[in-house]
Amino acid sequence: MVNNSFFEEQKEQSLVKSIIVAKYFDVWANVIINTQKKYPQYPQKIAYIDLFAGPGRYKDGTQSTPIKILTSAIAKPDLRDRLVAIFNDKDENNSKTLRAAINNIPGIETLRYQPEVYNEEVGDEIVKMFENMNLMPTLFFVDPWGYKGLSLGLVNSVLKDWGCDAIFFFNYNRINMGIDNEDVRQHMNELFGEERAEELRKKIRNKNPEERELFIVEELCQALKAYGSRYVLPFRFKNDRGKRTSHHLIFVSKHFRGYEIMKDIMARESTSNMQDVPSFEYNPADLLPKQMLLFMLFRPLDDLRDSLLQTFKGQRLRMQKIYEQHNVDTPYIKKNYKDILRQLYDEDIIQAVSSKGKPPKKDTFGDDILVTFPKRIKQWQAVK
User: Fold this and answer.
1) GMT-like wHTH domain: from which residue to which, for each copy (predicted)?
2) What's the pLDDT at 61?
3) Fewest Cβ atoms nearer than 10 Å: which of 4, 65, 75, 289?
4) Residue 297: is its pLDDT beyond 80?
5) Average pLDDT for residues 61-89, to the nearest whole number?
6) What does the pLDDT average to over 283-288?
7) Buried b (16+ CB within 10 A) or exposed e, 329-354
């Protein structure tokens, strides 16, 4: 049962989580709706499903994610006519409060499909229901208090259909404590898969906290990827003192475009970056003054430079392809690639021409620029 004090005041971490989800929903909805308009013969609906929705507002009056999503939909005619919103919370008080909060949203009556609020336990029955449905394009958000109800089966039951993406809040503290706990062994097996969970238990024995976290999050991401061609992107939240990880927000999509959109959103919500490479982390400690000398000793763009020259040695391809082929499962965003390629071009290490056969414009590097990488490492090693 969720401690009711959780909803008394919205912490910064919860606000950032809500911002990330709401921003992605807006961009995702635009992409899906524009695609639907090209094919009017198909159903013109999209869905937002939140199975652990909470009461809708914190006691200090701050909107939680469901209210933000609905408020956004009301303001946009195309979204207003298409959105099917489904919310659930097993706590009856939460579901009642959420219904009241939804009914009090100005303009809620303008939604073509009125939001539905349920009061059900999330388990195998809901998984089976989704597995047997052909879902409309859906953004699926799962934010359990701990881990009960969160499973690979649940995420997979939604992601199987076109246009469906998932975002879930991964309570690292609870799962880190639970992975070796026999009392919740079944829950852990459902989250990671039985075989993977057993291997994970072996891997993390006698590991320090940082190593444990890396193994646990990596195994979860690999488990999600194992069910087909998927893009998985984690965003870490540190506790108030910035010392320990509390949660990860995990995004899963079958399409690179969704991955790219979310990566840009998470990059903007990161509290730190080094050489313009985002941390993909919200850490309250990052908001305090830093010793800039120590901060700049880590230079991730140098690693990107080396990696591009090694990976694409002797190849000729456009900037957009370089970015798409290389950036997955890295912290780099498109701007990082353009900055490094521009630098390499200015140093005469790579060749680059536009689609019209002209050199790149000064201080820019367009998506269509055709890049030729040197064949031999010595050609660029000497420059460094």
Assistant:
1) 281-357
2) 67
3) 289
4) no
5) 93
6) 79
7) eebbbbebbbbbbbebbeeebbebee
Which residue type, as a one-letter code, is found at position 7?
F
Measure Cα distances from 273 to 210, 251, 362 in Å: 20, 20, 25
**Distances in Å between the alpha carbon of 381 and those of 166, 315, 324, 345, 378?**
43, 17, 25, 15, 5
pLDDT digits (tens, 9 = 90+) for 327-369: 999 999 999 999 999 999 999 999 999 988 999 998 899 999 9
Full set of structural domains in the chain with CATH: 4-287 (3.40.50.150), 299-381 (1.10.10.10)
What average pLDDT does the segment 234-256 reach? 91
Hey, what are 49's tokens? 């499903």
With beta carbons less than 8 A apart as the criterion, state whether 88 and 50 touch. yes
pLDDT at 303 over 70: yes
To 5 degrees, how large is the angle CA 143–CA 147–CA 149? Answer: 80
pLDDT higher than 70, residue 118: yes
Nearest to 83 by CA among 23, 141, 137: 137
The residue behind tokens 């539905």 is 116
The residue type found at 346 is D
Determine the Cα–Cα distance for residues 214 and 318; give it in Å rounded to an integer: 33
Taking residues 133-161, report their average pLDDT: 89
238 forms bridges with which residues in the sheet?
245
For the entire predicted model, the pTM comes to 0.89
β partners of residue 352 = 371
Answer whether 149's CB lies under 8 Å from 187's CB: no
DSSP state of 110: G
> How far apart (Å, rounded) are the C-alpha atoms in residues 251 and 319?
25
pLDDT tens-place string over residues 46-60: 999 999 998 887 666
Token pair 């941390």 is at which residue? 279
Residue 126 CB: number of other CB atoms within 10 A?
18
Instruction: Report which of residues 2 and 123 the model is more confident about.
Output: 123
Output the six-digit token pair for 345: 């071009």
For residue 196 the two structure tokens come to: 């993977």
